[in-house]
Structures are given as structure tokens and as C-alpha cells.
């Protein structure tokens, strides 16, 4: 992940603002659906309660889903206060703009149906815009965390674990072991500490093999980390230089245009003085 993508994370306030507008839009839509459709639902529930027993006696095989849409339960002697509450209306508004459309709720009044059309015309493009922005932001965050995890894993694999091994096999302190790890992998190689080189110690066979593998892969990982650090510093430098050079260029261009305009005006004044224009006699 380059520094440009990291700097793009500064667009988070704009994403949050867009998300806030999106949430407010959905909640306002839910409020309208609640007010428009909720009143009708309350009026119908009382009538449905009165005819519930009659429906059950007349149609014993009635599909439960047909009446569950209005909040009635055929299995028990109870009913809800209707689906068009504010919370359920807000969820319905969200299903409209996301084009999910479960079908368990739908506007029944003419104002609700007309509002649903215009609400969807604006809400669906807004939903696509928000999803696109959030998806890009999540991709940048994913790349950032992938690089972060790889750096942390590399630190553990090429510094922490070898430090513990060298401390046990060589008898060094932890500071001496981490110092040796960096001096070796950075190819500085002072030689004041050298592993697997103490004649007074007997090293296991796997120790030299592990050393060779650690040096080979550790050099590649540290070189990659150093190159990434250089790239980040260069991009930071270019970013701040471009930010500082924008205003002076604009001011220079403005001053240049002003000086050119002044020069043209001076030339016009000289021409008028040298070649005065007299009105023609009719």
C-alpha cells in the first residue's frame, strides 16, 4: 500500500458525511411511510380483529402469510400494533433504496405509493454511491491491514523468534540478540557479535541450517521493508512539496497576468499620446 492510498484515508470525513446523509434520508423516508401508512393500518386493524374469528371459521385452510402482512396471528388470539411502526418503516425504506424488496410490506395508500416512487428514484442512486465509496474505503483499509499484518509477522519471525533463539544458544542478552539481528539483516555486519562461532559451545545441527534460512529470507524481508519506507518518504515529500508549490504558482501566474495587463495598458496610453485621435467633422 503506497502513501497515496494512505493519504486517501483522509477522505474519511467526506465518507462519514455521505453516510450521515444516507442514514438521514432513509430515516426520513421511514418517518413518511410511518405517518402515511401507519394511520391506515391502525384503522384496518380494528376491523380485522372483528372479522378474525369469522375468517378462521369460514376459511380454516387460510394461508398464514396472507394476513401476517397486516400484523395478525392466526395461531393465537392476539395481534400486533401493525407493521407500519417507525422502526419497521425505516427498515422498509432501507429495503427500498437497497432494492432488496422482501415483499412483506408495501404501501397501500396512493400518497404512500407515489412517495415510494420518488423516494426510490433518489434513494437507489444514493445507495449505490454510498456502497461504492464504502467499498473503496474498505479495500484501502484491507490493503493497509494486510501490509501491517505482514510487517508484524515479519518482525516476529525475523527478529523476536531469532532473538529468543540467540539468547538461549549464544548466551547473549535480549538487547545484544536484537542488535545482532538488525546488524546482520541490514548487512552492516560489524562482527562484534557472530552467531554459531563460539568454540567453547557445541551447537546442534539444526542451528546452522536455521541460521542460513534466517539470513536468506530475513535479508529479503528487511530489504522489502526498507524499500517500502523509502517509497513512503518519497511520496510524503512529493505530497507536501506539491501542496506548498500550488499557492505560489497561482500567485505568480496572477502577478504575471497582472503585469501583462499593466504593460498592455501602458502601451495603449503611449499610442494614444503619440497618435491622438481627433473626431471627424461631419
Automatic annotation (TrEMBL):
State any single GO MF term: potassium ion leak channel activity
What species is this protein from? Gouania willdenowi
Q: What is this protein called?
A: Potassium channel subfamily K member 17-like
Q: Source gene?
A: LOC114456400
Would you tell me the Gene Ontology cellular component terms? Answer: plasma membrane
UniProt similarity note: Belongs to the two pore domain potassium channel (TC 1.A.1.8) family.
Q: Where in the cell is it found?
A: Membrane
Keyword hit for Membrane: yes
Pfam families linked to this entry = Ion_trans_2
Residue ranges annotated for the Potassium channel domain, each copy included: 81-138, 152-234
Highest taxon listed in the record's lineage: Eukaryota
Amino acid at each position: 500500500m503506497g502513501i497515496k492510498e494512505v493519504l486517501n484515508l483522509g477522505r474519511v470525513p467526506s465518507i462519514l458525511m455521505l453516510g450521515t446523509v444516507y442514514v438521514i434520508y432513509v430515516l426520513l423516508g421511514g418517518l413518511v411511510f410511518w405517518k402515511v401508512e401507519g394511520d391506515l393500518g391502525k384503522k384496518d386493524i380494528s376491523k380485522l380483529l372483528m372479522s378474525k374469528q369469522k375468517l378462521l371459521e369460514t376459511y380454516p385452510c387460510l394461508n398464514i402469510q396472507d394476513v401476517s402482512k397486516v400484523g395478525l396471528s392466526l395461531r393465537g388470539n392476539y395481534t400486533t400494533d401493525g407493521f407500519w411502526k417507525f422502526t419497521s418503516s425505516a427498515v422498509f425504506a432501507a429495503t427500498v433504496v437497497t432494492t432488496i424488496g422482501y415483499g412483506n410490506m408495501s404501501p397501500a395508500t396512493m400518497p404512500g405509493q407515489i412517495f415510494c416512487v420518488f423516494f426510490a428514484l433518489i434513494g437507489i442512486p444514493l445507495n449505490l454511491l454510498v456502497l461504492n465509496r464504502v467499498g473503496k474505503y474498505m479495500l484501502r483499509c484491507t490493503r493497509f491491514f494486510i501490509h501491517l499484518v505482514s510487517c508484524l509477522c515479519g518482525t516476529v519471525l525475523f527478529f523476536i523468534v531469532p532473538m529468543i533463539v540467540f539468547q538461549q544458544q549464544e548466551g547473549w542478552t535480549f538487547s545484544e540478540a536484537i542488535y545482532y539481528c538488525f546488524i546482520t539483516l541490514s548487512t552492516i555486519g560489524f562482527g562484534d557479535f557472530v552467531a554459531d562461532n563460539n568454540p567453547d559451545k557445541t551447537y546442534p545441527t539444526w542451528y546452522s541450517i536455521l541460521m542460513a534460512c534466517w539470513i536468506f529470507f530475513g535479508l529479503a524481508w528487511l530489504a522489502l521493508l526498507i524499500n517500502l519506507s523509502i517509497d513512503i518518504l518519497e511520496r510524503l515529500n512529493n505530497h507536501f512539496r506539491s501542496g506548498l508549490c500550488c499557492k505560489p504558482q497561482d500567485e505568480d501566474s496572477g502577478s504575471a497576468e497582472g503585469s501583462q495587463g499593466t504593460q498592455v495598458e501602458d502601451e495603449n496610453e503611449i499610442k494614444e499620446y503619440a497618435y491622438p485621435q481627433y473626431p471627424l467633422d461631419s
